Amino acid sequence: MNTTTTTDLTGTYTIDPTHTEIGFVARHAMVTKVRGAFDDFDGTVVFDAANPEATAVRVTIRAASINTRNEQRDAHLRSNDFLALDEHPQITFVSTGLRMTGDESLDLIGDLTIKGVTNTITIPFAYEGAATDPYGNLRLGFTGSVVINRRDYGVTWNAALETGGLLVSDKITLQFEVSAIKNS
């Protein structure tokens, strides 16, 4: 992101939940991947083209909105075995830094809180560009992903398989397709 061409991008943005996906992938029964997403979230991005490293991002996810297209599995994920929604209804991310890694790439550093446990993570993102939509809104697009260990967040439930291995992988890939709209 060359600052001479992005000066007009400086501002506060609202993450557009209808054009953004916060997803995840977990290995199931050691043989396949289960994909899911959170359908209810909000977030803001404060961006200064003159000082991209000062970018501030805040995202709040309503954990009850977990959706793997299987109601029985989703109910189990909402339970105390996994996300413990009664005590921890939200998952949050608050950035603490940003590092430019190329003209169109960056590392977003921040605190991810799941089930009341906070860890610092670094999410590599690619800048997908800026565009003005048919309604006159300036949008920025980013894609990124990071692998976390769910045990680091106190999400430890599992079941042993007869053939060896575990039902649910410890490593979870978080995936982000973000469209953010510049506030007026």
UniProtKB/TrEMBL annotation:
Residues 12-181 form the Lipid/polyisoprenoid-binding YceI-like domain. Transmembrane segments: none annotated. Pfam families: YceI. Belongs to the UPF0312 family. This is YceI family protein. It comes from Actinoplanes sandaracinus.
